[in-house]
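Allow me, if you will, to draw on your knowledge of protein folds for a short while. The matter concerns a single protein, recorded as an amino acid sequence and a row of backbone structure tokens. Could you please explain, in whatever detail you think fit, how the structure tokens follow from the sequence? I remain grateful for any guidance, and I place the record below:

…
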Amino acid sequence: MAEQPKKPHKNKKQVRTFRSVLRRETKRILNKINAFRLPINDNLFQTIIKLTVTVAAVAAVAFVCISDADISPSGTVRGFKDKRVLSHASGQGYPAEINGSRSIDAETVSHGTAVLTDTAYTVYDVKGRELISQTHYMASPAMKTADRYTLLFDRMGTAYTLKTLSGSVCSGETDHAIVAGAVSRSGRFAFVTNYDTAHSYVHVFSKNGKSLHKWKSGSYHISDISVSPSGHTVAMCGVTTENGKLKSAIIIQKVGGNANLREYTFDDTLLVAVQFTGDGSVTAIGDDKAVRLRVNEEKTQVYSYAGRTLTAYDISDNGQLALAFSPHSDGQNTSVTVINAACEEIANVATDLTSPYMELTNSRINLISQSRFYSYNFSGKLMASADIPADSQSVLTSGGKVLIRGITTVSEAS
């Protein structure tokens, strides 16, 4: 039987609980102090210490609950094991030679940078020293990360494994070929697979590999999926044809639920990616528009590309979205637009780059193209630039450093 979803707005209730406990404990201690009316002595000092510890403990629990971190017993133990791995870092730092013949992806994890190659999964600490390196045997490996969790899966294959620094959390195989995958910071993860009697099959698992949610899509070919930070909700985007025309949808479901919470449809649009962000919203990327929405609202915010060609995009955890556009189909003379949660433009940067790789941070737009690195602020001012290896494939900020992933090395943008 699927695990029943928890009541909505859990975080708000936990915040209210934290506040009520804090008020109650403060009132109790103040009443005790007034009753004794003592000067600063050992009893009062101990009382103050107890109050401080109580407030700190409640605040810590509230913070973890609000941030949806994994504080289960197994998660806590694994967290301690992960920290022990940090003391065994080896190597000389960046630039770091990859373990494999070619890199495929690089993502941030809680303790550093995860790099996936054709044969290995490696994590480097903030100084570029190797923390772990493990061989995989996937033909077409893909990677998703969230907090300390990394989900590795074989795209169009069936094998998968959920990892932290201390090792594999769970591993397994799906019944059908994997099309897309996602993981949340709670450790819950999801897959979209092919299916014999449906266009797509969606499956959500607990971090221990227990099945929590299954859904067959009879109308849409699901192209991407995202799991909310708490792991209690999934968002999907899919496409179908209707009367010879494209029709896309964003579908929101509660894990363990029997019906869609929301379904938004768009005519003549091809939606290719969907992602939850830290502000609780969902962003979907299409070929002619970007869409922003909140799970508990029916309305959507839409940003039209106005005929421009989308060449790259990046979604930040705070909900902002960077879109790289070219006025031509060849990707030349790219400009970058940053929009907020209301789909309002907050930055526009013009460049003469061709189809750059891009990263959006809280205050910068980092681009790489034609063996050069560029960093712009939201006012369009060039803040930094540098020569980089000719084989550079992507740029990301991890541990306060801007890193360049090449085919054979990971280096800092100096």
